[in-house]
Amino acid sequence: MFSAETFSAGPPPRTRRPGAAPRGSARSAGSGKRRSPEPVPPEPDPFEPGAGGPEPSGLAASGLTPSGLEAPAPQPANLAADGLTSFAFAVEAESGHRPVRYLIARRLGAGTARTCLVVTAPGPLAGTYLWIAEDAARGTCEVWTRSATMPRSVRIAERQLFGCLPLAEVGYLDIMTWRYPGLGASPQDRRAELPWSRWRSAETRSYLGPATTPGLRVTEATDPATGRVVAREVDRRGATERRWEIVEPGGPGPDAGLPVRIRAHRGDTGATTEYRRDGGPVPVPPEAFDGGPEPLRHALRRLLPARAG
To answer: Where is this region: Disordered (predicted)?
Structure first.
């Protein structure tokens, strides 16, 4: 289903001949003594940006993040609970006549964001999660996922980030806090427009996909009042792959940055699904994100239990 990099504890240890000196501990000539082994660096945390795989994502992949220069401030955060920097909320939908429930948690820092999406229903998908680590200063955005049948988390390859979540119409881009940093310049040969969107007064811009996605273009509509994305279309060589739009924005207060309803459409299947927020955001202790998605998803089920009936 995915083209991804699998995380593991590292390569298996090499075998050596009996009596042979270990690597990094050569014998001193003529003395018979061994040198002290060189220190082994600790294993990287796979849920921190830049760890867990050789394929960088975003600007870092092209070497366009200059060291020593101040990075531009990120855009206003999408799917944000105004006044809360660490929060969670629930989303429900009907998919194939089956109710689907997602729990989404987000922690915002100084130009960084951690997002965890957990599926709690239907039963066969329960426990599936998505983990997104974004760093605006470094120009990176890395995405991992794990389903109930997978032995470990896998990192989603960049060319897959413009598609949809498994068994859903919502895309990975729609869950990210900020615009994906690997998107390129605006194409000059086509006008940026979303004629199907209800957001007529929104500012619309298009961006070329990265080198890993030839022919791909992302068009976004931004609400000038908030600076947040309210509609998005992904097309490849002029053919629509998917659309996403806020149908009902959030109300005043902490809910302002969290839409009440969104609608997503897939061009290949013609399927359209409406996603509804179930209740308001709840605060999440920031340290709950430190252990990664495994402990966090259990905490989210306690914070956002499904309503009876």
So the answer is: 1-77, 268-295
